[in-house]
C-alpha cells in the first residue's frame, strides 16, 4: 500500500545545522498489516512516520501511497489525502484545548460532510472501547496524560482511516489499556486497515497481532523481520 524508495529526510539541509534524520530508506508497507518501527530515541521513527503519512516531504527519494506517487503532490492534495485516508496519533496528542473530549473526537469528521448522528454514534462507540465515555464533556486540558492519549486514539479513528499512524501510542497507558489499544488495532487490521506504530514498548513490538518489526538506527533501516 505504501512504498518508500531510497527516501532521505535532511532537516536544515544546506546549513551548518543540517541533520539527516532518515537516510535512504527503502520500505514497503503492505495493506492489512501492523508494522512497528522501533529504534533508540533520535533514530528517526517520528520523521519516518511523518513521511509515510504525507505530513513531511522527503529531501530525496520517492513515496507512493497506493498507486499514487505523493512525493511532490501540492499541499492541498496531501491535506485531502491525510484527511480522508490517514489517522494520526501524535506523541504529544495535539488535542484542541478548551474543547471537550467528545468534540475533539468528532471534529476531524465534520469537513467530510457525513450525517452528524452517524459520526456521533461512531465517536461514542470508540469512546466506550477506550473507556473514556465518562470524560465526554470535560475540556481536554483537565485530563491525565493517559486519558488524553485515549482521546487522541479515538480522534484518529473517527474517519475510519485506511492507514493509522501512531507515535508511541502506549507511552502513557497502563498494561491493560495498552492491551486494549493493541486489540483495537488488531481489529482494524482484520477489517482491512493498515497500521504503522513507532514504539519502544516491548509489549507492542512482541504483540501477536504485529506482522512486521522494522528497526531504525541513525535513520537507517537495520532489519525488517517478520514476527511469528
Ligand atoms: N524539525 C527538526 N529540525 C531539526 N532536526 C530535527 C527535527 N525533527 C527531528 N530532528 C532530529 O532528527 C533526528 C530524528 O528525530 P525523530 O524525532 O524522527 O526521532 P525518534 O526516533 O522519533 O525519536 P524519539 O523516540 O525520541 O521520539 C533527531 O536527532 C532529531 O533531533
Automatic annotation (TrEMBL):
SMART domains: AAA. PROSITE patterns: ABC_TRANSPORTER_1, ABC_TRANSPORTER_2. GO terms for molecular function: ATP binding; ATP hydrolysis activity; transmembrane transporter activity. One of its GO terms (cellular component) is plasma membrane. The lineage of its organism: Bacteria, Pseudomonadati, Thermodesulfobacteriota, Desulfobacteria, Desulfobacterales. It comes from Desulfosarcina ovata subsp. ovata. Residues 2-228 form the ABC transporter domain. This is ABC transporter ATP-binding protein. InterPro entries: AAA+_ATPase, ABC_transporter-like_ATP-bd, ABC_transporter-like_CS, ABC_transpr_LolD-like, MacB-like_ATP-bd, P-loop_NTPase. Gene3D superfamilies: P-loop containing nucleotide triphosphate hydrolases. It comes from the Bacteria. Keywords: ATP-binding, Nucleotide-binding, Transport.
Amino acid at each position: 500500500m505504501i512504498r518508500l524508495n531510497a527516501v532521505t529526510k535532511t532537516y536544515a539541509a544546506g546549513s551548518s545545522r543540517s541533520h539527516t534524520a532518515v537516510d535512504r530508506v527503502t520500505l514497503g508497507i503492505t495493506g492489512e498489516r501492523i508494522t512497528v518501527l522501533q529504534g533508540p530515541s533520535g533514530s528517526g521513527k517520528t520523521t519516518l512516520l511523518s513521511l509515510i503519512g504525507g505530513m513531511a516531504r522527503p529531501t530525496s527519494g520517492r513515496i507512493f501511497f497506493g498507486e499514487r506517487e505523493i512525493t511532490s503532490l501540492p499541499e492541498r492534495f496531501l491535506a485531502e489525502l491525510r484527511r480522508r485516508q490517514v489517522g494520526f496519533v501524535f506523541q504529544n496528542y495535539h488535542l484542541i484545548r478548551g474543547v471537550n473530549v467528545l468534540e475533539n473526537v468528532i471534529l476531524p469528521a465534520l469537513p467530510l460532510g457525513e450525517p452528524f448522528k452517524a459520526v456521533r454514534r461512531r465517536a461514542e462507540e470508540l469512546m466506550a472501547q477506550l473507556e473514556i465515555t465518562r470524560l465526554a464533556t470535560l475540556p481536554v486540558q483537565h485530563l491525565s496524560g493517559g486519558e488524553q492519549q485515549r482521546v487522541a486514539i479515538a480522534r484518529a479513528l473517527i474517519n475510519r482511516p485506511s492507514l493509522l499512524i501512531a507515535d508511541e501510542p502506549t507511552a502513557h497507558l497502563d498494561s491493560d489499556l495498552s492491551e486494549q489499544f493493541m486489540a483495537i488495532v488488531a481489529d482494524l487490521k482484520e477489517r482491512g486497515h493498515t497500521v504503522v506504530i513507532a514504539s519502544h514498548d516491548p509489549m507492542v513490538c512482541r504483540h501477536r497481532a504485529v506482522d512486521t518489526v522494522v528497526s531504525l538506527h541513525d535513520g537507517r533501516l537495520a532489519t525488517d523481520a517478520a514476527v511469528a
